[in-house]
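Residues determine shape. We examine one folded chain.
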Amino acid sequence: MSVSPMQNLAQAIRQHGLVRFVEHYAQEYPDAHLKDVIVDYLGPHREMEVAGQRVVNFGSDSFLGLDQDPRIQASIMRGVRRWGAHNGASRAFASVRSNEEAEAKLASWLGTEAALIYPSVSLANMGAIPGLVSKRDLLVIDEHAHNSMQEGAKIAQANGVRVVMFSHCDPHDLERVLTEAGAYRIAVVAIDGVYSMTGALPPLAELNEVCLKRNAVLYVDDAHATGVLGAHGRGTVLDALGNYDNTLVVGSLSKGFSCFGGFIGCKKEFKLLLKIRSNTFIFGGPVPPAYLDAVCTVCDILSSNEYEEIHGRLERNRQRFMRGAIDLGLVVMGGQTPIVSILMGDEDVTLQAGRFLFEKGFYVQSVTFPAVPYHAGVLRVQINANHRPEAIDGLLGALALLQRKYALPTPERPTSRAA
């Protein structure tokens, strides 16, 4: 029997290096891979059931625990009764009133003139970045920028825009790149506010100083800071810079907000320009209206005095885990945010470590190449406000047992091998 075109397509895709890499480890460690898991139950304190096993979930980015807040759930239900399940129109043609209300509340909470909501942060980056620049302009991107910004840069490059990278979080290299670029009409410099694999924070003030000197606008994907860093959870930009005069800031509505979508905080002028120039806004579909009502409720909570109480729980949990992980002698990356990465090293150790913790009752994401450098795999621990202290202590205890099984990296010995 002849091979069909569909079979040829599948075979061609399997020749891609990433596919070969993933399939190799899935075959080599079928029980340890723990990707694409199916969840059958979620509890109020991050209890989770996977494959019939009850574990505590340390892989959730709903950092404030608002997904379990009755007020958010009630807002969604009211929104469904008000609007139905979906409004069925591109926002280029029509937006429900809740969309305008949510954008107004977001801008008021964030401290920007305006906000524009997208169906996701990825779609915001993949639409706004190529929409902001044209052939006479320059796009500069941090070498470790989030995948969605890199994909947006590829679209811009395909449209004829010059795209260059600069060394991770390095203002001096940014200045070098902008200086060596030659003539350009305007440059846009795209970075993360929090780098999601490590929890690292960029030197925003220094990067912005270079931008102002070199006719460049700073574009900050602050998705992993939204709701959890800065005064009232406004993220990294306002605390670092004091204003948004030279910054477009992207935020998430599905992490700290525990709702749906993403947004760009900007000046009113840019809200209109992005509506015209951003293809993913035009063709990406709207956020389901019920979630927009929930966004309004979250904005009210973040703007209130209650936020300090919620964030206090998160901060106590973060500090509890950080102290314990450091006391164990583990290599801890990040730690200023609820994303804490523990260096494992080799890919096989990283995957087996995740499985080991799962069997001890804790789900932690095992992150390997290409999300992190080769042989620099990490356990990515995401701390939430609704984790119980005893769950954090339990995870630390499991990590101590893991150290007995594997020679994990330490600050003095940054390699790992099976014990």
